[in-house]
Every structure is written in C-alpha cells, then in structure tokens.
TrEMBL record:
Alphabetical GO biological process terms: carbohydrate metabolic process
Organism whose genome encodes this protein: Kribbella jiaozuonensis
SUPFAM superfamilies: Actin-like ATPase domain (SSF53067)
Family: Belongs to the FGGY kinase family.
Domain of life, source organism: Bacteria
MF annotations from Gene Ontology: kinase activity
Span of domain Carbohydrate kinase FGGY C-terminal: 234-407
Protein name according to UniProt: Carbohydrate kinase
Stretch forming the signal peptide: none
InterPro entries, A to Z: ATPase_NBD, Carb_kinase_FGGY, FGGY_C, FGGY_Carb_Kinase, FGGY_N
Coiled-coil ranges (or none): none
Keywords of this entry: Kinase, Transferase
Amino acid sequence: MGWIGLDLGTQSVRAVLADAKGHVLAGATRPLTSHRDGVRHEQDPQSWLSAVDAVLAEVGTADVDGIAICSTSGTFLLTDRAGRPVTPALMYDDARAAARRDHIVDADPDRWATSMQPTWALPKILELVADGHDLADRRVVHSADFVAAHLVGHPVATDTSHALKTGYDLLAETWPAEAFDKLGLPLSAFPAVVRPGVELGRTPAGVPVHAGMTDGCAAQIAAGALSPGAWNSVLGTTLVLKGVSDDLLVDPTGAVYSHRHPDGGWLPGGASSTGAGVLTELLPAADLDALDRAARAQGPIDAVTYPLTKTGERFPFVAQQAERFTLGSTPDDLHTYAAVLQGVAFIERLAFEHLETLGADPVRSVSLTGGATRSGYWNQLRADVLGVPVELPAVPDPAYGMAVLAASGGTDLIGTARRMVRVDRVLEPGDQRLDDLYGGFVAELDRRGYRG
C-alpha cells in the first residue's frame, strides 16, 4: 500500500513512493534537458513521458493506491484534440510574450491589472495564436496534465493550481469567458478544471491518477506548512514563498498571488527573481561547501548583495528595471559568497513583512526546502534574520508532497500531512538579525525606486 508523487522539474523527473506513515519506500530520478534561445525556453514534452515511464518502472506500481503529479507553474503546450503535441512545451520562465501582457490587461483591467505577469502562460498562448495556431482545433495542456493523460490513456481535466497562470478565475472557479472572448480565445481550447486531489482517471492497471498542484504548492505540502502562520520557503535557483490564509490576500502591487487550498481557504505567496542561482554566476569555479564552512567560521559581514538572477524583480515587489547591486566591500570569494547569502535572507525577511501588511497571519515558523538547504550556515542565518524558528522537513521533496496529496484523495489534506510529514530538525533564531545592514539594504531599494 502506498502512493506515488511525480515531480516534473526543469532538469529532471522525480518519483517518490511513500506509505501511509510517511516512510519513503522508493525513489527514482531521470534527467531532462531544455533549450534556451534568448528569452525563449522550451522543452520536448515527449521527453517527460520517457522519463516518467522510467521512474515509475524503477519505483514499481504494484499495489499502489494512487499517483499525483506536480510541474513547474505556467509550463504548457498545445495539443490536437486527441492530445498529441503540436508545439514544444513553453516553460514557466519563457518571456517571449512579455509585450502581450498589456493587451491582456486591457481586456479585463479589474481582473488582471495587478495580477498578470509577463511570463505567465496566458500571454504565451496569445503569442502562439499570433504565430498561426488556430485554437479551434487545439487544446491548452499543462505539463502535469499531459503526463496524466499519458498514464490514463485519454485527455484529462487540469487542476486549479496549474490553471492559475493560464487565466483561470479562482474566485468564480471558471474560465473568464467574457475576457477570453475579447482576446479571441475560444473556451473549447481550455480544459475542464477540478480541485487538486480529484481522480482524473486510472491507468490500465487500475491505479487512480489524481489532479496535482504546481511544484511550489507541492513543496509546501511536503513541508507540512498548511495552516495560517506556517510558511514554506523554497530556495533553489530562485526563492519561492508559500503560506496559508483563511481569506484571499489582495496585493495591489501584483507581487503576491494565491492558489486555492485543497481543504478550503488560500495559499498565498510569490516567486522572487533572487536566489542561489547567483552563486553559480558569481562564483562559477568555487567550492561552495568550503566557502560555507569558512562563512560559518567568519560569521556575518558588513556587506550585502541584492542577488537577482536576471534583470527585473517579481516578489516581494514588482520592478522590471531592478538590477543586482552590492552594498559594502566584497574583496574575495568568501565575502562575495557571504554577501549573497545575506541578501537572500534580507529579501526573505522583506517578503514576510510585505505579506503581513496585506493581512497574512504573523509568521510563527518557516519550513525550508530546496537545494540551498544543504548549507547549514545559510539555514541558521535565515533563522537569525527572520527571527523565527526554521524547520527542516525530513523529506523536502515536491514529489513527496504529491504522494501526500494522492494519499488524501482530495479530502483532509491537513490531516493526511500530519500523519505523513515529519520534521527532521528545528533551528532556533539567534540574537543577530543584522538590523542596521537590513535597514540600509531596504533604503537602497527605495532609493533606486524598486519598491514603488
């Protein structure tokens, strides 16, 4: 008895098989490649199917009670009516259609003036139409939907989480027909939408395949951060925060958006353009583990880097003109490393402050997931700067989060997570919050006009 979670990432497909007590029984990974050409970023959707078949064969599907799938938020392709791909997959960060955002906002300013972002799926759908794709005989399919259809043998509904960046109205729980009509988008091209956890169909062997969620939400489930005041911070190439609120948080700046909580309420958060990816660029040949040990011995420094991975910021503020900068001196690799770590921690703190101004519950704990958790010094620094305990989940894996969602069957996700999710360690905050340096950092953001 057990449940499988699948995570369709940018660089790999991962499967995790877990039992009812949360024990990981098996896991498997297969690599993926993608193609970047300037602002364009594509992936071959057929490669997902080969990788998924391989990881499922490795973990085994005998006596499995369910499967759920997560994927990168906003990644989609067009298929024909039978579900065969007619375009590559356009990835979540593909910016080819940024100029079409204003056209979308004009179609429904009240809906999209503050929420629609240039890299969301909807602008790219318009771009494909402009390139000659007739949506009358096409279907918009998110990456998780494409894999689910492969497993069950027919096209499937999407879920509210993956549908968000395609323009789905989470309040009305419907596609915005009037706005789509103004944009020339036929509703027939868009899938039916169900809530996460709903059964989409069954494999030939009879295994239920459940509607999933995006990877950020999946990581949040794996962290068990599913009640107000508990947050999940995913730090990899970029930083993503996810939390819980009973009421929808409305952000006039557009930095924060919310998914539906499968148990009711909302999952607010945002995705920053800052993160650990800067380290690869600034320190391409460095031994990061050695630098981490040296940074721990050195302690905080009087310098900070605003660690943008590219021009433009999305969260905790929206500033397309934002650029990386450093305050203070970074004369060597160690100081460069430490300044980036402090910069990410500062952006994280600023993000939580912004969320609280919108009405989010005060932060009481933060679960840390993502590749950056391998840095013990960084974990403790983030606890110190935030001033709250940080938790390190035992299995910080979006694929594991999908196993938990599959086990819930779409009902009582919180209770299921309490049974399955375990915390490995808790780091208490120290006394050093670097308040003066943080204040100078925020003042510099304001001086540059990044925060409005």
